[in-house]
Fold each of these.
Amino acid sequence: MHSPEGTRYRATVHYDGSAFAGWQVQPVARTVQGDIEAALRRLGIPGRVHGAGRTDAGVHAAGQELAFDAPPSWTAAELSRALGSLLKSDVWIESLRETTPDFHPRFQATGRRYEYYLAPGPTGRAPLRRRGTSWIAREPDLEALRAGTRPILGRHSFKRFAKSGQPDVGTVCTVEKAEWLRTPLGDLRFTIVADRFLHHMVRYLVATMVEQSAGDRPPDDIGRLLSGSADVRPPGPAEACGLYLTGVRYRMGWNRPPGVPGLWPVPARAVVARAHSREYDPMVEEGPS
């Protein structure tokens, strides 16, 4: 929406997190927010870029949502082309469009979707696979992994599954979806949707479910951790390279369908729906046809 002061734009962004120290700007490290802000400054557009979530070092995105303001002389098409020419190949703007002046990708989000990809067996160690999946030597039992998701659903304190707390907003999160599936490539994909996430929360959950499924810890450990049992300790977090932020939900719906290009194909019907609408259809979480 144009105004004399400028226009607010929102964009859906993918990035390979391997070379980044996370999303948020840091003084001496390369970050995704820092790269995008630097590209905008080269276009004569100073100011802060706001993101929907602060992904950690090494974590990827196939659905980060961001917003920034630009002078009214720019159009969305011009900005998209200009940013695409300035950003390095590990950051890609999937779509960029005008939005309302008050849009904020973080505070107006009603849900976020993360996907974690495990690559069991020897092929998971191939260097190009290791950039985007987490290798695991033993093949986990899929049904045991699925059983581990049951205690996660609902509203709980995830304090025991977080590297650090958030004193201002607490440790309670509402998880509405948590499921394991096998991908067309033979990987195992864990999808989790919640209103918010704590630092390293998904990675701690994945590591605990994997150990639980292998019999390395009792089958009720996740429930006991959620209840705050003092005699249970979570393992270290799973590797960052397997984790993706794949979608953010707003009042109008999800900013993109689930899946990661190259790992899990986006269903054709979702692509068609996106092509005919400014927003992906909000009501359905789809998997591949």
Note: Residues 201-213 form the longest helix (13 residues).
Amino acid sequence: MRHRAAAAGSTPFVKASFAVGSSELRVDLAQAVELARPLGFDGASARHFAAPAAEARPFSIGDFSGDVATGASCNCRTITLTPHCNGTHTECVAHLTVEALDAWRVVPRAPVAAIVVSVVPDRIGEDRVITRAALAAAWQCADVPPGPVVPQALILRTLPDPNDAGATAPGSMAPYVAADAASWIVGLGIAHLVLDLPSLDRTHDGGLLAAHRIFFGLPPKSRRLADAARAYATVTELAHIPDSLADGPCLLAWQVPAMAGDAVPSRPLAYRYETIHGPVT
């Protein structure tokens, strides 16, 4: 990677060039598109799967209150949250296994080539399902360019946005990805999936988690990490994919804390390509 920073006093920017395969990708790192949903502690944040709201309360010990508003010397808060339920998070195969694996260790350290695709789920009974047919049609509409820049990540936008008011009827389940669509994604060589849905799978599926298992290469009913053929893969759920990020190729990066667990709160960032040159010499 090569980069060039702005001169002092000028508009901040960092131009960067990435070699991906035989091509060179150029982006402005100061123009990231936020894909994370802000997580607050006022009770208004996501509470999927009947989880309690994320909470932050002043740490208190002895005569120290951890709250400047009540006279403390500084603010110090204890945070309680459920990463899978309270906001944008990135998870790994350990979501399904007995053995532990920290998601932050699996998240790529460097940006990866990605593709943004918008899909309208099919209506199957009362469910809205992202099927293979719907996804394949959306992939074609995204005008995925042929050539040496092969996407490693898929940013999947659901239409209409399932998190918008009125997009999902009260009491109904959120859309989800069908097993055949998950298989199709794996067949494309996608290792990292970003969704605006609370889960890759149906909210209530009897514990099958079929799409998760297919994406992580974990056989049905297996709970062994050693059985996972794609333990390098990640799934990011509850993302926000704004309209300003057009369908098509981009660069994707993650910011995550080095916090143990099968899922970690995350901040995915997308960068539009300014230019694509190839081949790199």
Note: Helices lie at 83-86, 103-106, 132-141, 179-187, 210-216.
Amino acid sequence: MDLTAHVNHLGRELATIAEANGDEARAVVERLSGSLDSAIRMTLLDALSAAADEITREMAPGSAELRLRGRDPYFVVTAPPTVPTGTTTDEGPVAADGNALLTEDGPSSRINVRLPEQLKAAVEEAAAKEGRSVNAWLVRAASSALRRTDRPTEPRTGGQRSQQSFTGWVH
């Protein structure tokens, strides 16, 4: 995705605003145009990255990543894993689209869960950010976790384990 057209468009809009405010304002915009180009580009990248994160939350266990090739961002979309139609998994029968029939709809049953206070607060915050009730958020999270087949299960052992993961931008 070439951001140049978007950056240039915003630059033209700023120049138009400056024109309406006189020669002094136009001169300021002209002096700042080089710095504004970088700031605008970084702001657009931040917006695209936030959009990719939001899309990933909605399509879990699939994902959308924003990557950078040179100065140009591009998206990498990973679809949720599927299994052949007509089979049965540990999660139950498989739908025509290949996904296990774990849904947020249908008959429900009650379960009491005790959560540490900090986890409860984090769940409430995450649900609010997505505009969902805590119950709907927990159902979606549990359903997504059960659909994940890309992570092998590891036996739990005593002691502490640490895992380092690095994400970010390199330019």
Note: The two ends are 16 Å apart (CA to CA).
Amino acid sequence: MALTFPAFAQELYVNTEPASGMATHLLGIRLENQGYFNPVFKNRTDLDIMYAPIKELMVDGSIYQSDYYHNQQHFEGANIYAKYRFLSIDSVQSHFRGAFFARASSINNPIPNQEISLEGDNSGIQGGLVFTKLMHKLALSGSASYLRAFDNTGGNYLPVGNARDAVAYTLSAGYLLLPKTYKSYDQVNVNLYLELLGKTNPGYNQNYLDAAPAVQFIFNSVFIVDLSYRTALWNNMIRTSNNVYFIRLEYNLFNVF
């Protein structure tokens, strides 16, 4: 594991991915749960397996289960995500990085929403760019991507008149709050985040912009706990909920393969 991991911890964003990659031959396991309480409690759980075969490339496979569109929990489908870092400008406690990313999903849910989301809701593809700048304890990141929705599996077709194309954009900031002075891997890292996440369906006048404050705890540089709450600043789009909590547990294994 590189000695710089704690200094770069504040760009392990909670709701978005940075341009920086994972350590080579690192295997990451994530268990996530998100949901809402109004008008009734509904939640989604997903399991992610991440791996970095080389320092520039990270791949991630996810499976989803929820009761968002059914009375009981059911298996929704899966997606695969890949990110390739093409730009690295590094200096002491600072760097600027750029990456391409892509996602493909196959989901079996009905489609009541106008929002196109490939993480449990829609089958489709996504591709985009992300850039991340680290400045000592502050990390800033922004992304833009294009999404194309397909009909879902199981005879769940996109309603006539629904958008099949969307543009997504994000802006994230992370700050390393603790430790004030790094001494060892045993110290708990505490990071604070504020992320803005937006999406628009071109030609349909359907848009939203969410704010997602978050806190992150990193134990022994391998176990991560993320807590976030996402709420709409602006929305005129039909989607699952405007207010969503998010909890994630992540464990990283180094030099697995």
Note: The domain at 6-253 is CATH 2.40.160.40 (Porin).
